[in-house]
């Protein structure tokens, strides 16, 4: 344990965030020792709200460069470590408590703290989609942001992987802002890094420009550079593109292509399972869903679809085995899925259907019967 707790600067860039900024700042109460807000051109009451929390408000002329704005915010920080958030991010109460404990105990040899960024939860509050981001960084290392859009911090050294979650509260909206920045940079002849290519492909995909997205993703992969996680994600996007275009052969090809970059992931096994399930090839579908249940989750900061590593393949195995006339196996996997989602209506429906139609008795019923 450190003799003294570290000090923290919270650095944020904002624009027209009057509906979210107070919620964000309230959620981190007690964590930052200073709050630095860089406004990139608000025309609403954002600044007036922020003044209730800090007087360190700076104006930054927007130049279509997120990294430049974030680096300017970081340059104003004076504390030991810098925490960054967006206005529609929050710390839940449990995560705020964990963060305060971290603040009091973090060894100063740590250069950065990586935290899960939770983008989606299901109707039961369980995390369904998240990935890691370096949220807390040592100021003296002068880490810099890179990228005009979809920017990232270039960190190195001792990185602590934490279970403190930052939760995104906004809804995903397709905006043409990022796409326009990419296209403007392209028109200028600005060279794209591998990460730029990958993110440009994502913007094209979200705008349903599937043919253009395919070209950009393939350019990214053919260059042989970029992170493994981005390569795997590009394969996933390519399968989605070809599925949307109705090209089943290419969809299958890019599903399998992902295995060239890393060991099979449950997400791709579930994709393959669904591919064969749609084709009513239930034996093949069961194979891939079954494989998904046997894999060990990788220690990665990349995107993770938790359903594929927990309940989803079991629920789909229930469907496959029922179609194959193997109702006992169908029931077994539905029960496993139920351990993850005991109140899921579909899982409860499957349970009742199998018990009623095929006379399968649940272990729970047998136990209660013995007790009687």
From TrEMBL:
<dbReference type="Pfam" id="PF00535">
    <property type="entry name" value="Glycos_transf_2"/>
</dbReference>
<dbReference type="InterPro" id="IPR001173">
    <property type="entry name" value="Glyco_trans_2-like"/>
</dbReference>
<protein>
    <submittedName>
        <fullName>Glycosyltransferase</fullName>
        <ecNumber>2.4.-.-</ecNumber>
    </submittedName>
</protein>
<keyword id="KW-0328">Glycosyltransferase</keyword>
<feature type="domain" description="Glycosyltransferase 2-like">
    <location>
        <begin position="9"/>
        <end position="103"/>
    </location>
</feature>
<dbReference type="InterPro" id="IPR011990">
    <property type="entry name" value="TPR-like_helical_dom_sf"/>
</dbReference>
<dbReference type="InterPro" id="IPR029044">
    <property type="entry name" value="Nucleotide-diphossugar_trans"/>
</dbReference>
<dbReference type="GO" id="GO:0016757">
    <property type="term" value="F:glycosyltransferase activity"/>
</dbReference>
<keyword id="KW-0808">Transferase</keyword>
